[in-house]
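Hi R.,

As promised, here are both runs. First protein below:
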Amino acid sequence: MSYNEVSDEELEMIKRRKLLEYQRRLEEERRRRQLELQKQVVLRRILTPEARSRLANLKLVRPELASLIEDQLIALAQSGRIRVPVTDKELKELLVQIYEQTHRETRIRIKRK
């Protein structure tokens, strides 16, 4: 058998592996969507419509930050550490706190010789 010839068994094994990989990716995507739906249901219960709107706007600009905040809000609500429903004003205060904790001012110094 030459290098370019591939047996039917080998082809079948390759097809099977590709099919399994495709099925695994589909299952991961289904789980990710299901988790996102559950997250949205919980957020709908703990945020006022105005706060949800603000969070949706933030998600358009900074999706990773919005996701982090969503997770924190859910954890705080489940542990009873925040009052539900969270208003837009309270969400803004939380966003300011997070910004102050994570923001680092960039300074550029030019030293002349």
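And here is the second one, sequence first, then its structure tokens:
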Amino acid sequence: MSRVIIVGAGYVGLTLGVASARVGHEVYFVDINVNTVSKLNQRRATFFEQGLQESLDTLFSDRGDIAFENLHALYRAIQPQAAIYVISLGTPLGPDSKAKLGPVENVSQEVANFMTEEDLIVLRSTVAVGTSRHLLSSIPQITNLSFCPERTIEGKALEELSTLPQIISGNTTRAEGLAEAYFSTITSSVITAATLETAELIKLASNSFRDLNFAFANLLALISEQHGVNVNELITLANFRYDRNVIALPGLVGGPCLEKDAYILAQSFNSPFADLLLNARHLNENFANKAIDFIAAKGVAPQTRVLICGAAFKGKPVTSDTRGSFIFKIIENLRQLGIKNENIAIIDPKVDEHILDIPVRSNFTELEDKFDFMIQLTDHAVFEEAEFDDFVSRQCVHIISFWPKKKILNAAGASHLFLGGLR
């Protein structure tokens, strides 16, 4: 077993750290967010993930501080020794829609200052193709570097880390060997990519393929709406016992990965054909505008009330992550229509925070008011229950859903908008 230092204790880093601790590695976390460091040292999860809080309680119960604000603080607390450094920082897009790699470069330099021939950097961040090679050329102190793409789904990360094949790569045979030895303790299947660039491209290709597939489904939803066709029926029948079709069902496509990876892949491909990726992404980005267009067409008054169901970016598997959620754009557009905060209510079973100064309630049963519009943004299991359908049928005049709804809700015809079709 090795010492594993996770640099960047967000979703990717924290789940991998817990998976590493489960099999016996000595794990520490480094993060510049003071609140994250404080919570982890109190053994408190910073987001909801199935099994995460329980793992923090049990795996680190007999340890002192496990999180630090920088490597210097870490090495004031523990004795340096050979380690695997996992860099898992976020790479948000800049105004030019290209990934901001400055933080990854800075952290790589900081880690390299401590490196020996025994150490390994595992780059787990999503980056443009060629980034790993750029780090090696610009930071000569880096001895062993492996790019290992993260491909887990939020809500099932701890399960998938032990079951999915882990792809590794390396700048040296030793880097490949260290990465293989590490990931082999977590999962039974480790595959070596021929080059660093191959591994970088695998991550971008995986998410961009899903984005393209969802964009096609959403395009079908728009076409179906125009022709009065049930898109859910259309796609289900098109796929039925026809293995050549793997058409996804339509829905909102957000989150911290799918909202940016197509841009980063396009950044890695200097060709007009990259527009295929960008056009699909733009379609997915604008799909939620159909809700605002529908409300605007119905008319808005000062007393118009709106209920938004779903604040996290997705409902299955369940998560509390609001990064990349469409709720922010929806609320901003509602405000532009003249709807005030006090007339907007939000429901989400796992998100415990305020969204743009609006409190999020955990259960629709807490609401007694009538609403002019209900917008369902996610497919959380709660929103598929008969009690919820009864509630919105009774309490909401107009229903807008991006997910399949029961046929009874279509009784009023043009009163509702179902871009996810009807069951």
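A quick note on the second one: The domain at 208-418 is CATH 3.40.50.720 (Rossmann fold). Let me know what you think.

Best,
J.
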